[in-house]
């Protein structure tokens, strides 16, 4: 266990090292209809969060994901929030109440969620700049905690 993993464990977090093989494909439209592909984000650490408006823990963690995005906005970091099989209007209504500045994608048929094995929500994956998944986490988390931010920063610097 390296220092970052120790800090995460000490904080009671379970960012699990990924053992699920290569990153599944991800190609989904955003709310404006523009397609986003995971490959477009090479060179950045990407937080991919699978969520739904009906999922209370998902709703609770959204502000912390936005805080993390804000803290790392001038760094090679991106957030892709993948909504699971809900209509665009429902997602837009939620985002009016909980505004975020990260990219929200629509997984209309649930195909991406199945490919990423996001069976419980929220499910979050941290992808390294080389496109490989490094960590996963199931459940709500305060993503703006220092230990989490340090683990993500270490990935940006190629130290994890």
The general outline is: globular
Mean pLDDT: 90
Share of β-strand residues? 15-25%
Number of helices: 5
- Strand pairing plus helix content: what structural class? alpha/beta
- Biggest sheet: strand arrangement: 1-8-7-4-5-6
CATH architecture: 3-Layer(aba) Sandwich
**Biggest β-sheet description:** 6 strands, mixed
Helical fraction equals: 25-40%
Determine Rg (CA atoms, Å). 15 Å
Distance between the termini: 11 Å
Q: CATH first level: which class?
A: Alpha Beta
The ordered H/E elements are: HEEEEHEHEHEEH
The count of domains is 1
* CATH domain topology: Glutaredoxin
What is the fourth-level CATH superfamily? Glutaredoxin
Low-confidence stretches at least 5 residues in length (pLDDT < 50)? Answer: none
Number of DSSP-assigned strands: 8
How would you describe this structure to a colleague?
Helix 1 runs antiparallel to helix 5 (146-156). By secondary structure, the chain is α/β, with parallel strands linked by helices. The chain has one domain: Glutaredoxin (3-Layer(aba) Sandwich). Helix 2 (56-71) links the parallel strand 4 (45-51) and strand 5 (77-84). The model has no long low-confidence stretch (mean pLDDT 90). The protein has helices spanning 3-10, 56-71, 88-97, 111-115, 146-156, and strands at residues 16-17, 27-29, 35-37, 45-51, 77-84, 103-107, 123-127, 133-138. The protein has a six-stranded mixed beta sheet with strand order 1-8-7-4-5-6. Strands 2-3 form a two-stranded antiparallel ribbon. It is globular and about 40 Å long.
């Amino acid at each position: 266990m390296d220092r970052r993993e120790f800090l995460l464990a000490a904080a009671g977090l379970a960012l699990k090292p990924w053992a699920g093989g290569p990153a599944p494909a991800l190609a989904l439209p955003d709310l404006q209809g523009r397609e986003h592909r995971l490959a477009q984000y090479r060179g950045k650490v990407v937080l991919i969060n699978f969520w739904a408006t009906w999922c209370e823990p998902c709703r609770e963690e959204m502000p912390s994901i936005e805080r993390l995005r804000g803290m790392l906005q001038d760094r090679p970091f991106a957030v892709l929030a993948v909504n699971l099989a809900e209509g665009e209007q429902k997602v837009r209504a939620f985002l009016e109440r909980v505004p975020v500045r990260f990219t929200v994608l629509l997984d209309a048929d649930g195909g991406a969620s199945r490919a990423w094995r996001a069976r419980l929500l929220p499910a979050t994956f941290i992808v390294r700049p080389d496109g490989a998944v490094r960590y996963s986490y199931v459940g709500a988390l305060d993503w703006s905690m220092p230990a989490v931010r340090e683990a993500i920063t270490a990935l940006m610097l190629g130290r994890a």
